[in-house]
Amino acid sequence: MTIYEYSAKTLMGEEKPLNDYQGKVVLIVNTASECGFTPQFEGLQELYDEYNKEGLEILGFPCNQFNNQDPGTDNEISDFCQRNYGVTFQMFSKVDVKGDDAHPLFQFLTKEAPGMLTKQIKWNFTKFLIDKNGKVINRFAPQTKPGSIKSDIEKVLNA
Known about the structure:
GO molecular function: peroxidase activity
Number of domains: 1
Family: Belongs to the glutathione peroxidase family.
Domain Thioredoxin: 1-159
Keywords: Oxidoreductase, Peroxidase
InterPro entries: Glutathione_peroxidase, GPX_AS, GPX_CS, Thioredoxin-like_sf, Thioredoxin_domain
Mean pLDDT: 94
Strand order of the largest sheet: 5-4-3-6-7
């Protein structure tokens, strides 16, 4: 299985198949607008600006499961990301990332790259690095700043 088996609704309401990203390196992140890690949007956008022409895509999935830190509507989330961080990478509609109602993509991601103590996602801004074939390569903790995974991204881009 790969991420290409899944699709998700964008913030604009379109169903987007992830097989649109075949041949690309993808960084999937569960995001939140009112979290202590929210400033990572800036670092994610910097990664996107630096590596998108080389084949990096970043997919943001807002989630409100952690202390209700993304309570807004899709339109409010879109406006927030644009206004505060100039986000141009693909953002999706709000999803659950853990529990019985977790989006199937996140069920797959956590199965492929379980966390240290639990396979569930423990907080906002957990990051999953996906290779050009749609396979999960690595999982990064929420406190891992986007800039600190540049070398990991470069290795996968150059593989």
